[in-house]
Amino acid sequence: MAHLNGSSNGTNGVDGNSRPAGSYTLQSLPKSNVFTSNLPPDPAFPTPAKSHSAPRETLGPRLVKEALYTFVRPEPTQEPELLAVSSRALQDIGLKEEEAQSEEFKEVVAGNKILTWDEKTNAEEGGIYPWAQCYGGYQFGQWAGQLGDGRAISLFETTNEKTGTRYEIQLKGAGKTPYSRFADGKAVLRSSIREFVVSEYLNAIGIPTTRALSLTHCKGSKVFRERMEPGAIVARFAQSWIRFGTFDLARMRGDRKLLRELADYTAEHVYGGWDKLPSKVPSGDPKSKHSSTFTGIPKDTVEGEGLEQENRYTRLYRAILRRNAETVAKWQAYGFMNGVLNTDNTSILGLSIDFGPFAFLDTFDPTYTPNHDDHMLRYSYRNQPTIIWWNLVRLGEALGELMGAGSNVDDAVFISDGVKEEDADELVKRAEGIIENCGEEYKAVFLSHYKELMTARLGLTSQKESDFEELFSELLDFLEAHELDFHHAFRKLSYFTLSELETEQSRKDVAGRFFRFNEAPAQDAESRSRIARWLEKWAARVKEDNPNDEERQKAMLAVNPKFVPRSWVLDEVIDRVEKKGERDILPAIMKLNLDPFNENWGWNESEEERFCGDVPKYKGMMQCSCSS
Ligand code: AMP
Ligand code: MG
Predict the structure, then answer these.
(1) Polar residues compositional bias: what residue ranges (predicted)?
(2) Are residues 450 and 463 in contact, defined by beta-carbon separation less than 8 angstroms?
(3) Contact assessment for residue 460 and residue 467, using Cβ atoms and an 8 Å cutoff
């Protein structure tokens, strides 16, 4: 359905200001509550009115069963200071640029005003009212029980009438909810700056992600982590905040009814309807598995044993799988790591979500994990595709009964009582067969997206079987061996011309461009020779593909960003905002962040070059702890 179309906005290289400006204020924005009006609320507060009149202390941590959310209001924020607003987010939601300057905007994104609630007119028990979601999750491979939105509160949904995209707007760091467990419901400024910046960056480079509208510094609130820190709230938005962990919790509690409701809701209201989900691939598909127009779905995907009975829940599973495979392929191609890929941080829509100790690579090291506490390297760069599949298998287990029931899934007795004992073995066997078969699809979809992106990043318009080994792998191998910068390699390659690569000597000369500025690596001659050999192969491929330098350079510069919000950049911004009280740096960085493919931004040339340049000594490949 239309509301999925705006997901990544494909803004590569396009100036964000070229899209239509919004015309709404927060007040006039058309609002909805599709989530809360279709799914069961916490039975303790079944209506907005019951929650609104409840004393705050009764809305604190506890177990919530047979429900997907609780109506709960944000805690008021003393002295909110609006630090930054994303102009791209304003446009995508449909808000006027000037709205960000209004007092009302400031109060709403700080959690001080509930726009949809009015004591008198909402006295009857309906209406749109803030809510926190209930979910669980596997954390570092272990079942962690009920988690939920412990510090995120959704305000309302709104549909952009020009793009048809529906977003759920929520505040992160807005206070305690029934899902806060032992914690305070707050977020600190440093991690809020990180989430604000990276959400908008991933969107700008075309990676599906949750978004960020604004960042508020809560001047009046101090939050205790390892020390006292300033608090903050990010107003963020997404087409859906449902996670794999939402399904996990219903499954672990054996709540079959809730699982089915959740699956139906996801298909109908998040994916736009059952009819929009992938159907079986026609078995007579004439395309070979490896043709360049290969869609990523192997011919035998739906032909395995016992798969003749694929029902609509399997199609839902396949849709979720494809989106997640696509997103993780993009993370790999752009060197991004989430850092905590627990199932509660894995989106049902394949969005990058919940930014804690995330990072971009600096030099290429596949074993790098940005998470300081990740001693097993579970969430390292190279493990991400495997871990997303691990999470998908947990989701497959949650959907297993529905998928395994095959054509029996709508049988009244099955719906009310589950599978009959004599049919159980067959159901389990079928579900296992489906999940196994889906594993093949996952690999294929992942690889096809990964290859497509790497092909574009290397300036090629066609794919060849040998590219993977000869171009992709060998590039990454020499980057790793000589500790060269991952992002700079692609950007620098974008400026090469074929005439510079004609002789062995010229290739060795230009190979030095991959090194840090003014600083050759220890094995200078060896690395030059190795890079030169690779450049020879690359030039030969480029020549047969499209020898036009100008066209290729233009295409490459539009997919190989100049600016990357690396850990050291974010650390410096945090330091300048938090410790030095600077107020211009965040808006300045947002210029680079929203249009990262530009060559310059008209802010401050030497600063722009510094933020896009070599990683300062000892500031590469930093790690972050989970406390945020
Ligand atoms: P995260 O690691 O941010 O994905 O969080 C894992 C779980 O802990 C989620 O259920 C969060 O809502 C919850 N959580 C994390 N930090 C806090 C906090 N400061 N207050 C309340 N809940 C939190
Ligand atoms: Mg989380």
Answers:
(1) 1-15, 24-39
(2) no
(3) yes
Which numbered ligand comes closest to the C-alpha of 183?
Answer: 1
Residue 380's closest CA among 323, 331, 327? 331
pLDDT, tens digit (0-9, with 9 covering 90-100), for 129-150: 999 999 999 999 999 999 999 9
Q: What is the pLDDT of residues 27-53, one digit of tens each?
A: 999 999 999 999 999 999 999 999 999
Which whole number is the average pLDDT over 596-618?
Answer: 97
Task: State the pLDDT at residue 139.
Answer: 97
Domain ranges of the chain: 37-116+144-197+215-241, 246-253+288-455, 461-557, 568-612
For residues 8 and 30, what is the distance between their CA atoms, to the nearest angstrom?
22
Report the 10 Å Cβ neighbour count for 237.
23
- How many helices (H) and strands (E) in the chain? 20, 13
Measured CA to CA, the distance from residue 25 to residue 224 in angstroms comes to 35
Confidence category of residue 305, pLDDT binned at 50, 70, 90: very low
pLDDT of residue 292: 30
Judge if the beta carbon of residue 373 lies within 6 A of ligand 1. no
Residue 327 in contact with ligand 1 by CB distance below 6 A? no
Out of 142, 147, 355, give the residue to mutate to test ligand 1, the one with the largest number of ligand atoms within 8 Å of its CB: 147
**What's the CA gap between 301 and 304, in Å, rounded?**
7
Examine the residue annotation and report whether 344 is marked as an active-site residue of this protein. Answer: yes
Measuring CA to CA, how many Å separate 40 from each of 32, 65, 574?
Answer: 16, 10, 40
What tokens does 363 get?
Answer: 């030099």
Cα–Cα distance measured from residue 236 to residue 209, given in angstroms and rounded to the nearest whole number:
11
- The answer, yes or no, to whether any atom of ligand 1 lies below 6 A from the CB of 625, is no
Distance 346 CA to ligand 2 centre (A): 8
Q: How far is the CA of 148 from the centre of ligand 1 (A)?
A: 8
> For residue 298, what are its two tokens?
């192997």
* Beta carbon of 183 within 6 Å of any ligand 1 atom: yes
Q: Which of 92, 248, 344, 354 is catalytic?
A: 344
Best CA proximity match to 73, nearest among 114, 104, 32: 114
Selection from 115, 108, 116 nearest residue 77 by Cα: 108
pLDDT tens for 384-421 read 999 999 999 999 999 999 999 999 999 999 999 999 99
pLDDT at 14 over 50: no
pLDDT band at 622 (very low <50, low <70, confident <90, very high): confident
User: If you measure from the C-alpha of residue 188 to the centroid of ligand 2, how many angstroms do you get, rounded to a whole number?
Assistant: 15
**Spatial distance between the Cα atoms of 473 and 489, rounded to a whole number of angstroms:** 14
Here the tokens at position 253 are 């509690």
Block residue for tokens 């480079």: 205
If you measure from the C-alpha of residue 182 to the centroid of ligand 1, how many angstroms do you get, rounded to a whole number?
10
Q: Which residues contact 614 (CB under 8 A, 6 or more apart)?
A: 485, 488, 516, 517
DSSP letter, residue 229: E
Of the candidates 382, 360, 364, the one whose C-alpha atom is nearest the C-alpha of residue 612 is: 360
Contact 79, 50 (CB under 8 A): no
Nearest CA to ligand 1 atom 6: 147
Choose among 305, 159, 316, 127: nearest CA to 237. Answer: 159
55-103 pLDDT, tens per residue? 999 999 999 999 999 999 999 999 999 999 999 999 999 999 999 999 9
Q: Which residues surround ligand 2, an ion (CB under 5 A)?
A: 344-345, 354
